[in-house]
Amino acid sequence: MSCFLVSGEVEEIIQQAKTKSYKNLYLNYQHLSELPSGLLQLDKAEKLYLKYNILKKLPSDIYRLESLVELYLHSNDLQELPEEIGFLPCLKSLNVSNNFLKAIPATIGHLKKLEYLHLANNQLSLLCETLGNLHSLRVLDVMNNNLTRLPWQLCYCHKLENLSFDNNRIDRIPRQLMNLEHLKELSGSNNRLESLPQDLDHLLSLESLLLDSNVNLCALPGTLLKIPYLSTLGINSCGQPADDKTKGADSFSYFHGTQFFGNSEQNVLPLVELSLRATHKLVQSRSLPTPSFPLPANIVAVQAKINYCRCHRRREANSDIQGTPLRRHVGLR
Question: Of 260, 270, 267, 259, whose CA–CA distance to 224 is shortest?
Fold first, then answer.
């Protein structure tokens, strides 16, 4: 009886939407296992929300929703998407996160107006190259999948601002992506990255680079320091063996063979200080003679501020709410 009541409620909502020409339709938490046929007659609907149902597939004639701008299918049981999903001419946002998708159809590249594509928490092992045809795309989220690579064709998504691929098995970032001049956030924590492209500084708009828990990432390119707007660098547990269980071991204990942090109670150091420490240790290890020329004024100024920064960070750490872990990132100042 409960299924009948739910079905009746849904049909009533659809009928009201037809009569009153609703543009937004909310059918979340309705236990739908398939889309009602009447829903596809709402050709004026612009936003359709269907999260937390039990949909296993979408009808092949979903293209009849020709005015659809946003399609929200988060948390269903979808195992595939029909090729016809690529024939929604007005679609700007597609969210199919938290499903069971193993692939997405190549026709998705036909969505010329698509700006937001959320594919997180699925079972994707490959992304189709046609994603590069999404020239309006601003956000791509493929976190928590089984991906081993990113398609280099993403470099054609010239408007891309946010690329998130955390918790996959990706070992490199295609160099072609360094041409994404509008990219503001690049997040690839907990992957298998071994290195970063040397021309990372071509990402002129980059503000946040999150690479935590890439245990094979043991060095950063010096060009990182040239990115003008970079304010957050997450490299917690990079270069640290996954089987290391040393109590209280710092995140950077193994990073490029250099102990960057004093102890686990200190807050994170500015990147420029890390660079100075690494350079000092490198000079010592190679027994190079002390330079006879004076250090540049800006380096001297930075060294003079180091003690102040340490004290300032301790005050910040002490003022943090007790029991709330600080997100460890490097702040570029």
Answer: 270
**pLDDT band at 278; cut points 50, 70, 90:** low
- Residue 107's Cβ-count burial label (10 Å; 0-12, 13-18, 19+) is middle
Let me know: does 101 contact 119? Beta carbons within 8 Å.
Answer: yes
- Bridge partners (DSSP) of residue 275 are none
User: In the structure encoding, which two tokens stand for residue 270, read together?
Assistant: 């500015």
Q: What's the confidence (pLDDT) of residue 203?
A: 97
Tokens of 290: 């002390």
Q: Determine the pLDDT at residue 225.
A: 85
Long-range contacts of range 312-315, CB-CB < 8 Å, 24 or more positions apart?
313/266, 313/267, 313/268, 313/269, 314/266, 314/267
- Cα(55)–Cα(96) distance, integer angstroms: 11
How do residues 43-72 score in pLDDT, each as one tens digit? Answer: 999 999 999 999 999 999 999 999 999 999
What structural domains and CATH numbers belong to the chain?
A: 1-89 (3.80.10.10)
Tell me: the pLDDT tens digits for 64-90? 999 999 999 999 999 999 999 999 999
Task: Please say whether the dihedral angle defined by the alpha carbons of residues 249, 250, 255 and 260, taken in this order, is positive or negative.
Answer: negative
Strands in 47-49's sheet, in edge-to-edge order, are 24-26, 47-49, 70-72, 93-95, 116-118, 139-141, 162-164, 185-187, 208-210, 232-234, 330-331
What does the block give as tokens for 327?
A: 């997100």
* Residues in Cβ contact with 40 at an 8 Å cutoff, skipping those fewer than 6 apart: 59, 61, 62, 64, 65
The type of residue at 42 is L
Given 3-state DSSP classes, what are the helix, strand and coil percentages for the chain, each rounded to the nearest 5?
30, 10, 60
Place of tokens 């700007």: 92
Looking at the chain, how many residues does it have?
333
Structure tokens at 50: 């269907």
In the chain, count H helices and then E strands.
Answer: 3, 11
